[in-house]
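Exercise 3.2. Students should predict the tertiary structure of the chain below and write it as structure tokens, then compare their answer with the key that follows.

Predict this chain's 3D structure.
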Amino acid sequence: QVQLAESGGGLVEAGGSLRLSCAASGGIPSNPAMGWYRQAPGKQRELVALISSGGFTKYADSAKGRFAISRDNAKNTVYLQMNTLKPEDTAVYYCHLRQTLYGSDIAWGQGTQVTVSS
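Answer key:
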């Protein structure tokens, strides 16, 4: 069974930066897409960014220009560099693994809290 271990969340002031990491382990299928979703209190879970095994990326409009997703296929790890953070970025961030960029879900992480103070 695939397991996703997230790290890097925390408290940061508006305008600051954070880097999230997520390492996958277990029965990982070949060439999966990996990425990040987030869920703020009282809101639905939403896409932040996804990256395919070949490096193709997909971003939410709110993340474009501020966040950068990357991955290390040898380590089965995906990263999310978040810059110029805003209070509205405050949410629980979930690591996600799926078959392909537009394919079926495989696994979700437990989530890591990101809090941006104004």
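Discussion points: The mean pLDDT is 96. The two ends are 40 Å apart (CA to CA).
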